[in-house]
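Q: For a teaching session next week I want to show students how multiple molecules come together into a single three-dimensional assembly. I've collected the sequence lines for a complex. Could you give me the predicted structure tokens for the whole thing so I can convert them for display?
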Amino acid sequence: MLFSPHEIQETIKMFSQEHLDIRTITMGISLRNCSTGSAKSACEKIYDKITKYAEKLVVTGETISQEYGIPIINKRIAVTPIALVAESSDANDYLCFAKILDKAAETTGVNFIGGFSALIEKGCTKGDRKLVNSIPEALAATQRVCSSLNLGTTRNGINMNAVRDIGEIIKKTAKLTADQNGIGCAKLVVFCNSPEDNPFMAGAFHGPGEPECQISVGVSGPGVIHSSIKNMKGASIDEIANRIKKTAFKITRMGQLVAEEASKRLNVPFGIIDLSLAPTPEIGDSVARILEEMGLEIVGAPGTTAALAILNDAVKKGGIMASSHVGGLSGAFIPVSEDEGMINAVEKGAISIEKLEAMTCVCSVGLDMIAIPGNTSASTISGIIADEMALGMVNNKTTAVRIIPVPRKNVGDKVSFGGLLGEAPIMRVSTFTCNEFISRGGRIPAPVHSFKN
Amino acid sequence: MNAIVTVVGKDKVGIIAGVSSVMAELNINILDISQTIMDNYFTMIMMVDFSNASNDISEIRKKLDQAGKNFSVSINLQHKDVYEAMHRI
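A: Of course. Below is the structure for the complete assembly, covering every listed component.
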């Protein structure tokens, strides 16, 4: 036999008990050739192009899943930031573009389409501004459309005018989807240093430097990592890091296999593998529980940031060797509502937004899926975003904020978004104000270490 | 196309015969068989070639699930490439 019983059993256990899956196959499609002066004809072109390119995406994903015995959870589409595509059109707002993306997503059978986006780290064009102002209605009127904004980069600094405005946009989005606990905000993420090839939602878009069409794959597997370090009581940190690295390697190799197969069958080039530990609300699929397995009483305890740094780095190191191209976010996600261990820590009062902020310095993304009181002011939301953007800018990493001011809810309440988005206790937000700072507007200059030329 | 079929459960008479006859019925060729006891469970590992199988993969899975129920064992079929990717560089 080519493989030992131990190897075979290890793999089977990963799928059957440890929730190993391909989290998403995401097809990136360029819409740059869909720009025209007429919004109506641009929308027609967009719909035709997406439905033609992604016609077989879902069925191909399902066939591969059956044939290889690997669960493939989501099939998704990322498109060129709509601000770039819609700018030359005669539309005054871009709601029609969001609706056509939603329709194309429905026709192709994908569960999310990302790219209702704008890259505005240095400032807004007229098209960018229209897009930003259309976000609340767009997210309220559609089911599958995800929106993202890049507000800063290490290279260019932070657009504080946009940071100021986005606080209001998030409030308005929550208000327009108040009957669903502000779920519109769960489909909106703001970035510093956003990757242009990220296959994960809500932040996926097909960057301007990407090819015509490509396939990227997001692999997950917090449960596998967790179980690989069980029974390592008393082992040194070096040993833990090494074990995580080896496991991450195995998981990513599986992702590479699926990506190559999908790319071959769809006749679309392979883009990248994103090896991210993306938790789900299910038991045994939590990033927080991995940190606790390392020896923390509960996530949020002193040592949490260090434990997360070890995890994030080991996952990257294992993943990089396993794939020909690694990209996207690749690391550990720490969303609150989507992680059973994280929810538990919030409920026990072990973790605060401030501790999460510190953790985002060493994880792969940022403040993710955090529910806060509905009466939080727009400027406070902008302040939280500004802090997170500054961390990303100075540390040369991607950071992001996906925050939901849940209408009519307060600290002590709990909110459920359903499905993969999970449920979250409302977290306490500082009541001290930053209104004057945020209302100044302007730009935060790029940090000195960005001048590398 | 090769796959690895594992059968895990409580040992009893006729498991190998039962699973093999399902394979024959589906025109799946058995290339290799090994059997061992792991963690007190009967564990059979088969390498099979399903290139000329009479049914498609989802049908094959259904039949194996049914056979598993009949013998009270769990039967898993996984493409060989998955193991190759994970365990061999």
